[in-house]
Design goal:
The complex is a heterodimer of chains A (93) and B (410).
Chain A: E1 31-35, H1 45-49, E2 55-58, E3 63-66, H2 76-80, E4 86-90
Antiparallel strand pairs in A: 1-4, 2-3
Chain B: E1 8-12, H1 14-24, E2 29-32, H2 39-50, E3 57-60, H3 64-76, E4 81-85, H4 87-92, H5 94-102, E5 108-113, H6 127-130, E6 138-141, H7 145-160, E7 168-173, E8 182-186, H8 189-196, E9 203-205, E10 211-213, H9 233-262, E11 271-274, E12 281-285, H10 289-302, E13 307-312, E14 314-316, H11 320-327, E15 332-337, H12 348-357, E16 366-370, H13 380-396, E17 403-405
Parallel strand pairs in B: 2-3, 2-4, 4-5, 5-7, 6-7, 12-13, 12-15, 15-16, 16-17
Antiparallel strand pairs in B: 1-8, 6-14, 9-10, 11-13
Helix pairs in contact in B: 1-2, 1-7, 3-5, 7-9, 11-12
Classes of the chains: A alpha+beta (93), B alpha/beta (410).
Amino acid sequence: MSREKTWKEIAPAGVCSKSSVGFNTGDWKTYMPVRDLEKCTNCLTCVMFCPDGAIHWRPDLGKIEFNYEFCKGCGICANECPTKAIRMTLEQE
Amino acid sequence: MTKSVKQEMIGLNGDEAVAYAVKQSDVDVVAAYPITPQTIIVEKFSEYVANGEVETEFVCTESEHSALAASLAASATGARTFTASASAGLALMHEMLFVTSGCRAPVVMAIANRALSAPLNIHGDQSDSMAQRDSGWIHLYVENAQEAYDTVIQAFRIAEKSDVLLPVIVGLDGFTLSHTLENVRVLSDEDVKRFVGVREFLNVLTHEGKSVPFKLDPANPMTMGPIAMPNYYYEFKRQQDEAMQNALTAIQDLNEEFATVTGRKYGNGLVEMYSLDDADVAVVCVGSACGTLKTIVDELRQEGIKAGLLRLRTFRPLPVEALRSALENMKAVAVMDKSLSFGGEGGAVFHEVRHALYDSKKHPPIVNYIYGLGGRDSSPRELRGVYEDLLQILKTGRVEKTLTYLGLRE
């Protein structure tokens, strides 16, 4: 981890020196979403509902992809999925 | 005086003087909500907008909390921003006061000082802004309508200095100043515009690694005032305290610069000393009552009594050094408070003046007078009584009462 800066070194008003892209916020989740490829219809409802933008449509692969570095495990995707293709499982498993 | 620019004398009350100064200060956004005794400021300014006399974006908000939220947002985009309030309105802004100073948004706000409920009271005292002492705003208090006009113009420059970047409250006593007509010498629009100039910006490093002006701009995105965890919050607060120390210099500099343009100055900008150099007894006071006290000082001096007055113009940042050097040689000092810190054994000004003198080798007796709460009139006779009490302390060498409620029915 880099050295924490002093008050003389940082910008005022909490102006961020790093983008959130470089700051993984999904490392404390309890449950993680797992998709059942058999049931998924690629309707992209989960992409729309994800509050963290952690589900992406990958046109090159023709499927959705979870970004577990930003997913907090809230389970909204699983709840909204019309075909029940997303299951929340304990991260340790 | 000879070098000062041409000025015109017009009749303005304190609120109108503030509105007039804002009109001339090239302000981009005014977001405000009316409340007695500040209402005239907002009314008068909306007239200027309606008449096309200013290009300012005027935002009528649904509450004072929103007024300051809008002002903060406007200021964050780089706009020169003004708002005004009083009493309950300022109290409703409480949360946003800290957000504004924490976002380092140089908003200027006039407060027509008024009592706080309950019981409901629309009249003047300084309880409203004194209760916001620790909100991170610079506090300047004026003595008359002329100074209200002059100080609002200076306030934009003080707030916007890149080593300050703090919001400023300009306090004027409700009704005594806000609604009382005075002769005010005003500058030309061009001279004010030249004095205030354009807003200066500090460059900051953003998350994109670019060094850009500190303002919200879609071309150079940045995040202001996000969450700061325990490992960084403290550092941001320390920066604000440093900015306050820088403001001590900025206030004095602007007071001097303004004097070269207008011929008017207010002490050193922080404190104004009146017959204080060789005084034995001194009164410390904030705001319009200083006018009456100056008359009493003149009267006492004619009687051969060495009386003086220290007017505290800048309450935040507290000019600790100036207070100490001005007061340590006095033989007795009285501090006037137009607000009360319940259970604190005196008012805020008293506490702070005593604090300023603690590190001095000399410790003159310092007593406190609460006065004028809820618009209670303080007569010259009563205020003269304060000096007479100090002379009594000198005579007996004993302080009978540290805290006196002046003008209260006992």
